[in-house]
Design goal:
317 residues, alpha/beta, Spore Coat Polysaccharide Biosynthesis Protein SpsA, Chain A
Amino acid sequence: MTDAQLHIVTGSDDNYVPGVMVLIASAHWHNPGARFTVLDLGISAENRARIDRLAARLDCRIDRIEISDSIFAAIPVRRAHLTRSTYLRLLIPELMPEAERVVYMDCDMVVTGDLTPLATMDLGAAPVAAVACPGPDKRELAATGTQRGEYVNAGLLVMNLPVLRRDGFAARCLELLSDPAHPLLSEDQSALNIAYRGQMLYLPGRFNVYANEATYPSAEDLPDQISVLHYVVSMKPWLWSVPFGEVWQFHANRIADLMPPRKRSFRHYRTRAEMYRRNAFGLALGKKKHWRRIALRRAIRQGFVADYLRAQAARAN
């Protein structure tokens, strides 16, 4: 027996509120019966009010659960583009003791299609269902004892909450994260892969498509179906122009009067400048991978983005 309604849970500190807003707006656009919960790790009062106004605008349910920012203080974050809000998904089974199933989604995602299958699929005894990473880091495969095609990305998880509660999901993952003898570059994602190796269900790739041209060797490798785009690593569309970014911007424009102002830190500018420098040198030296990325960006625009924008604009009118 599962919750019939699609229930999407995401988490954020104050830095990722633009992502939260657009994730909810896009998910509701394509799945108008969905409800939402935001795990709040220090969202400001001003931005909490924005989320409340979004719920009223969309006429949907958005719950918010406040989490103390001290709860993960002892756990390191090794990747520069992440904050401790990445660990919020570990708390979901205990924070929602009455729920049987939720779909956890990172707040740097945008929904482009129907997510009903995630609410209705048979999980059986599997703790989670997720999409295998298209190009996992070899160091993480070694650290987790998994193979390519087995290591999942934790950005979207269909969570079987009774099973996770029974297994002490958070405690298991936090124990792995606290072990200095086995540092995990991808933190709780890799802890999840260790804890449930061989027990997870695998979702079709369309439910977690990386919005990063570096993932795809050529235009022929681009996905032909996309239900969820994931702006991984530093490719955040509320900061910069990125591949597939126009899809995110379409939904941001629909709620533009509610959105927080764009904030860029010195680190953001430094990262972007370094990216431009590398690309410029690569193109000047005729390196194939840099020219390939330009071709891929063009294929992304022509092969998915343009059609999506036309279809949604027609629907909006």
